[in-house]
Amino acid sequence: MQRIKINDIFDPALIGKEVSVMGWVRTRRGNKHVQFVALNDGSTIRNLQIVFDLEKFSEADLKLITTGSSIHVIGSLVESQGKGQSVEVQADKLHVFGAADPEEYPLQKKGHTLEFLREKAHLRPRTNTFGAVLRVRSALAFAVHKFFQERGFFYLNTPLITASDCEGAGAMFQVTTMDLNNLPRLEDGKVDFSADFFGKPTALTVSGQLEGELGATALGAIYTFGPTFRAENSNTPRHLAEFWMIEPEVAFFDITDNMDLAEDFIKYCVRYALDHCKDDLEFLQQMYDKDLINRLEESIKESFVRLTYTEGVEILKNSGKKFEFPVEWGTDLQSEHERFLVEEHFKRPVILTDYPKEIKAFYMKLNEDGKTVRAMDVLFPQIGEIIGGSEREADYEKLLGRINELDIPMKDMWWYLDTRKFGTVPHSGFGLGFERLVLFVTGMTNIRDVIPFPRTPNNAEF
Ligand code: 4AD
Ligand code: MG
Questions:
Q1: What residue owns the CA closest to ligand 1's atom 19?
Q2: Cα(129)–Cα(442) distance, rounded to whole angstroms?
Q3: Nearest ligand 1 atom to alpha carbon 390
Q4: CA 322: distance to chain centroid?
Q5: How far apart (Å, rounded) are the C-alpha atoms in residues 320 and 314?
Q6: In whole angstroms, how far apart are CA 63 and each of 33, 57, 93, 96?
Q7: Which of 41, 75, 359, 391 could disulfide-link to 91, CB 3.0 to 4.6 Å?
Q8: Cβ neighbour number for residue 101 with a 10 Å cutoff
């Protein structure tokens, strides 16, 4: 008999039919005559109630049905008499796949804290909260591909192991096969990387952008969607050492086109989740964030505010607010500044543009003022920076000038510079931190709770 997923079982046409269901037991309760089991198979936040008549089953048959055990039930689907569910299964046959000793299974009672569940990340996908978050995450990943594919972008896979540092922040994880306890040395005592696997120092990538630009200046419009790695030691609710980034890159695109794309893209993803993850979002709203669905609806109705960094700094300086980090033109904005602009001043998403060149990466297009670059950061309520991007410097001489100013080794950059030497075009792109989008859409507050197995300083368990 074909198994039916619980998500498909609430179909009125199935009432009265015999069904076969499999899943993990959430709870069991009842009395001497009848036992009720709440079964979940991960396909939906909703549990299916299974009714065991004790005239058909003995206590011994049901003994192994405890929270966390896995079972197979065949029975008839009937309209439910009780409150809280529309249908239930009257069990005829039971098979227990695996028991879960109540003394040992950690997810016994409801209402574990999120901190506790982080230590049980191997089992937490079985909770309502993580089931909901992971289903929303999956739907958003699908929406990302759908958005770009429908618009003629090509999905480009860029390397994870790289010899160049895209963002120049120096926060990279080294990749080596050398024995760290016995490193080959040059005469001056430095490590001899010619003996390493790639014959030179390599690291995990912080961004696929540079290779993305190679794709865009050939295919016209590409996007990447893959893991990125940053060894920055920032233990915050917004930073992971391993996170997923989506990086579109488009030829013949200026900064305004880029802002329009970023805004459309985020709104599309939020709309997709609202349309396809209703049950899960309602659950998350009820449990964690009473205003969640309303906030999501509002965020896609209004257009994002667009202003320059210089204007933003003026607003912050005139706000009369005491910030932990004072703002001056030229300083990088902290999360408190970004959140003030978004949550208190404008009360909607903001795109800040034209940052001082000193605080942005080498590849951004220099403005006529010689001081600012055509950068754009999209700032979101609760999140801060959700997107970072720019129009790229398309002029060979100017780009070379920046590379030299910043002392970036040419041996890493010659191939990138070739895009400006041969048929250069104006082009732009951005990077969206996927987990920050999932944070916004689920209303969760810690980035460790929107990725199945988070990687953060001192934490690589599971
Ligand atoms: O602003 P970033 O550093 O931009 C880039 O990497 C560019 N190469 C993107 C591009 O133009 N193609 O990072 C982009 C986004 C940030 O806005 C943020 O959402 C996310 O990536 N991000 C992180 N997310 C989680 N943990 C971290 N440590 C992150 N660092 C950046
Ligand atoms: Mg950034």
A1: 433
A2: 10
A3: 11
A4: 32
A5: 11
A6: 15, 10, 15, 10
A7: 75
A8: 10
